[in-house]
Amino acid sequence: MKTIFTAIFLALFSVSISAQNSFDMAKKNAAEKNELIVLNFSGSDWCIPCIKLHKNIIESEDFKKLSTDNVLIYLNADFPRSKKNQPSAEIKKENALLADKYNPNGLFPLTLLLNCEGKILKTWEGLPSENSKNFSEEILAFYQKK
Asked: Could you read off the pLDDT of 116-127 as tens digits, one per residue?
């Protein structure tokens, strides 16, 4: 019973940074708030580098601070393999459209820094070599240049 409670608790609180689900909404919000968009392509239940990226960078305090400081909007295009982890049909369709446009080679993880119009400013293929602080500082530098 204790294990079940712990698992439920961790599942509820493990995703502390909220990801937008609509690219159009993310672009609209980014334009209104003068923010950048971080678009991440991941395989959350099968891609070990994707899991490490989320744990070590996306869920870090440095990265979360960029979101709370209105520097960026985080959008995750997830492609899980397990049936129990499948997103809704609407989200699957949107993720497929995003992959067609921004990730035609199917790289995982692939992280893109975009402006509010969807133009690519920076690309990270695979697990970034930077730690969360350097990764976040690089994004902040792009934000300050615009």
From this structure: 999 999 999 999
